[in-house]
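Researcher: Please predict.
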Amino acid sequence: MLAQGERRWVRWFAVGVAVLTTLPYLAGYAFQTDTWRYSGLLVASEDGFSYLAKMLSGAAGNWLFSTPYTLEPQAGFLAFLPYLLLGKLTSPPGQYEQLVALFHLLRVAGGCLAVLATYDFFSLFIQPVGWRRLALVTATLGGGLGILSIFGLGSLWKGPMPLEFYSPETFGFLGILAIPHLAWARALLLWGLVRYLNASHWKDALMGGWLWLAMGFFQPLAVVVGWTVLAAHLAFNALRAWRSAAWQSWFAQAKKAIAIGCLSAPLVVYTFISFQVDGFLKRWQAQNILLSPPAGDYLLAFGLALPLAVLGAVWSFKHLDEKNSLLLAWFFAFPVLAYLPYNLQRRLPEGFWVALVALACLGALRLAPKARRWVPVWLSIGLLPGLALLSGAFASLLKPGYPLFRPAGELAAYSYLAEHAEKGASVLASYDTSTVLPAHVFLRVAIGHGPESLGVNELKPRVERFFQPSTDDSERRSLLNELGIDFVFWGPLEKQLGSWNPEVTSYLRPVFSQDGYEIFSYEAPQ
């Protein structure tokens, strides 16, 4: 049990994190103009628009997820339920603004819960309150050596960039800043582990199972991460029991893990089976690739905490008990999670940073007092990548433009489609327009989101050729018929693809024109 003052400090810290991560969004609205309207998003905007589109799908009456970023037939799939449910609370007029507001309420709530859960997790292992607080700040806002890339050392990373700037699973700040369901998943994962370690009887562990069952609705893969940590913990403690013959305790622990695993399994099993039998989901999975970067990138990412964590792991191994053995199990399971032969392997190190920071603080407490005094300064270097991320986000808002701001004419065109197009109608537009359109109108597009647009690598060049003057009309009509297109969107982003003018065609009928944006309807020949 935490003291009242300690709990109060954690709550205020959670509020501070919420304010810190919300200020850039408020700045975006302050910088918008009459001609450029702020989207309400910041980083990873392509994913952000897709979450808003999922919410709009829920508002349209859907209970199962069907992506609007493809024209392929879909049966529907139980996923992204929190977004679908929130969307049902919205309605015109001003529906897009309602979606954004609820999106950020989900994000702020998830961030606050992640802070509280992280502190509860640390309280199991770290006794001095000051070190718990340091661990919380480091785990929530900190990172590794990514700041070196800003000083011209980007060649050290073999991946696209330092993990602090693109991998919310590796650290967590990015998830709190921009990806609500990952913050919720982090909170539920850690609280489930707290319940597992604190349960005095396997029945007490059922609450951990319920928490992980809920986690499956936010991120099913996080449940698999939890199972892996529990399995590694049981394996680690089996070796410990082998030496001390403490099998009775091990069997009690195994019962708790099995209870949690069984209770949290339904959605994971459903997801696994669905991706095996559903043709659409199979194709989606085949092109949804998120591989882990080379091991050297992880060493740089964890470079500040890792030396202290190794010291903490050595100490924990010498003073092994049922609780700190979980940190060791997670430490040794990391390579398996990060490089499991799976197309979404980069998702699987979820939460490991928290365990690493806990070990780092345990290692720091073993240092001599003079050396220990410098640890907060050392770990504070890891705050710089997050600061750079926030600074870059603010800088991107200073001059309104794509993709975070949208022209007023574009929004007027979306309003026309919302009023005149049938729900679920299909639209052909450039990739960038197609990313945004389904977040404003419940329509379908051929391309617009890398993982969710089936065959995007083949379709994108064909869509770009559609707007080029050298393309033959027969090829254009063939694409329109093949995809079953109802409307063609023609604005500045489409005009950048080529100087072709759809107004000269006989098979496209103009239905909207304003501020450089035109919409044409198309009826396929019978």
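Model: The radius of gyration is 25 Å.
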